Amino acid sequence: MTNSSALRLAAIALIVSAAFHLIAPIFGGIVSQTLQLFFVGIVYLLGALGLLRGWRWLGYVMFLILIVGMAVSLYTSFAPAPLPRWLYLGIFGADLVAWLGLFVYLWKNNPDR
């Protein structure tokens, strides 16, 4: 378990985002887009578990993945999609909180400074 509150916040927000991803097939049916979201949710969940263990290297990886995830979820929330807009905006919000938590953790606890 990590001692950093910023990293713990990032992991919890990542778990919330993973939950939004994992419930996508319930609201959109079993189509390619919802299955992609489901598998991304599994990756996010595994990433959150690694962050809770304090794996700093995974923080750098998830930091970059979250940037892409935020861009895709924000774009998709305004494009025609089989899922409700609130789901994509929820994913965006949770990703943003996780990204900010990782930013604070990686910047504040930088061993090179």
Describe the protein.
The chain is an all-alpha fold. The protein has one domain. Helix content is 80%, strand content 0%. It is built from 5 helices and no strands. Helix 3 runs antiparallel to helix 4. The model has no long low-confidence stretch (mean pLDDT 92).
- Beta content comes to under 5%
Class by alpha and beta content: mainly alpha
The succession of helices and strands, N to C, reads HHHHH
Largest sheet: none
- The radius of gyration over CA amounts to 14 Å
Low-pLDDT parts are none
Please state the overall shape, judged from the principal axes of the Cα atoms: elongated
Number of helices: 5
Number of DSSP-assigned strands: 0
Cα-to-Cα separation, first versus last residue = 24 Å
Q: Quick check: average pLDDT?
A: 92
Helical content, roughly? over 70%
Instruction: Indicate how many domains the architecture comprises.
Output: 1
Task: Quickly describe the structure.
The chain has helices at residues 5-22, 24-28, 32-52, 56-77, 85-108. 31% of the residues are buried. The protein is 80% helix and 0% strand.
Descriptive labels:
mainly alpha
Secondary structure blueprint with pairings:
Elements lengths: L4 H18 L1 H5 L3 H21 L3 H22 L7 H24 L5
Helix pairs in contact: 1-3, 1-5, 3-4, 4-5
